[in-house]
Amino acid sequence: MSNFISIKNPINSFNSNISVAGDKSLSIRWVLLSSMAIGKSKAYGLLESDDVKSSLKAVSRLGIRIKKTKNHYEINGVGINNFLIKKNTVIDAGNSGTLARLILGVLAGSEAEVKVIGDKSLSKRDFERVIDPLKKFGVKIINKKKGLPLKILGSNYLRPINYLERIGSAQCKSCVMLAALNTDGKTKIKAEKSRDHTEILFKKIGVPIKIKKTKKFDFIEVTGKKNFNSFDYIIPGDISSSSFFIALTLLSKDSKLIIKNININKTRTGIIDIIKKMKAKIKFINRKSYMGEKTADIVVKSSSNLKSIDCPSALNSRAIDEFLIIFLLAAKSKGISFFRNLEELNQKESPRLKIAINFLKMLGIKVVKNKNIIKIYGNPNLKLNKSYVIKNFRMDHRVFMMSTIAALTLGGNWKIYDKESIKTSFPSFLKILKKLGAKFN
Ligand code: S3P
């Protein structure tokens, strides 16, 4: 089987309902927290992607028993810091920054040394951002570079900390919250805004937590060493995976799509706010609440009159994984779009900001980067007729998916490599595209 797809024709109009894969952030959090709970937890709709499989493998290395049945996963939790860790244990986080950073928090109380490794792309990413607070707790980290591999040696006698999270990274915040579970006492966090799934889960499963939200910061206080019971979870669809289908519909003619049961947590819906400002025809129906989270069906229609946006930086962390696809929409909209302070995108699975700018330039779109400002000169009449080859993007799943949507909506003759990258977050991506009538081989 080849490792690329060829696309020669835009997708025809469609009118359909789809479900996308389960939310990645929630799936990984369920795996880690249910391992620390007491008793058997079940998850339905768990995302079956490489990042989540790495998470399941990781907790099994800590002695956790996992069972997969036809329609759900079961994890037998052992309580906080009660893992059975063998000598020379190695955890391979694969491509998952979320797993790698969060598991360090989980392991903070463990007195057996564990080595954490990752794939080439993950190994290059910044771990100092979690190593620093972990050291404050009293955790020992042995590392040679600022990325992976590293060794972690926790302690049963950690001290709670006061921590200022400045990046707006949910991974850093969650790592500290998980480490806090291993301490006697209260850990206090002042965090820039970022997704709050860990906070919501802590509250729902009975971890003592206090949260105060102000306009700019969230203040979180976690009390450790209090065991909690197992919990079941029905994982809703992932808005980040949905975003590719949202863009596909917006940029296709006479099309309509309903994407069922998506997590619409406010910290994740920046893309919706952004594209609404761009005049996208999109709305939520069937709103529900579940386990402290909000869900809805997303209804989206073709929108041939997209307008440019001056994107407020306050939306950055709420749309952090969606900027590749947002940039593509900006390229096809009327006027000049402005985005600011998005350097953090270069810290993702690939240097996404650099890749996106080169990508748009390749399509003939004028992009100007001046310090922290990016200007995209949109062209609503953008139609492509050349040949395009997309490769060497460090297997970044979202680069692959964004390129595929560009190919299916803008014309041209495309060859997009590393199709197996979708296994990271959205293995059924191509299957769903086929269902909608996309032609590729
Ligand atoms: C995630 C947080 C974000 C996001 C990632 C998932 C999480 O990363 O980009 O895909 O589940 O906590 P940062 O915390 O590094 O911004």
Describe the secondary structure blueprint for this structure.
Layout: E1 4-7, E2 15-18, H1 24-36, E3 38-44, H2 50-61, E4 65-68, E5 72-78, E6 89-92, H3 97-106, E7 114-117, H4 120-123, H5 128-137, E8 140-143, E9 150-153, E10 162-165, H6 170-180, E11 186-192, H7 197-205, E12 209-213, E13 217-223, E14 233-234, H8 239-251, E15 256-263, H9 270-277, E16 281-290, E17 293-301, H10 323-331, E18 336-340, H11 352-362, E19 366-370, E20 373-377, E21 384-390, H12 397-410, E22 411-417, H13 429-435
Parallel strand pairs: 2-15, 3-14, 6-7, 10-11, 21-22
Antiparallel strand pairs: 1-22, 3-5, 4-5, 7-9, 8-9, 11-13, 12-13, 15-17, 16-17, 18-20, 19-20
Shikimate-3-phosphate binds next to helix 3 and helix 6.
Task: Describe the protein's architecture and organization.
By secondary structure, the chain is of the alpha+beta class. The protein folds into 2 domains: 4-21 and 236-435, Enolpyruvate transferase domain (UDP-n-acetylglucosamine1-carboxyvinyl-transferase, Chain, Alpha-beta prism), CATH 3.65.10.10; 24-226, Alpha-beta prism (UDP-n-acetylglucosamine1-carboxyvinyl-transferase, Chain). It is built from 13 helices and 22 strands. It has helices at residues 24-36, 50-61, 97-106, 120-123, 128-137, 170-180, 197-205, 239-251, 270-277, 323-331, 352-362, 397-410, 429-435, and strands spanning 4-7, 15-18, 38-44, 65-68, 72-78, 89-92, 114-117, 140-143, 150-153, 162-165, 186-192, 209-213, 217-223, 233-234, 256-263, 281-290, 293-301, 336-340, 366-370, 373-377, 384-390, 411-417. Strands 2-15-17-16 form a 4-stranded mixed β-sheet. Strands 4-5-3-14 form a 4-stranded mixed β-sheet, covered by helices on one side. The chain has a 4-stranded mixed β-sheet with strand order 6-7-9-8. Strand 6, helix 3 (97-106) and strand 7 form a beta-alpha-beta unit. The termini are close together. The relative contact order is 0.14. Shikimate-3-phosphate binds at residues 25, 97-98, 169-171, 174, 194-195, 320-321.
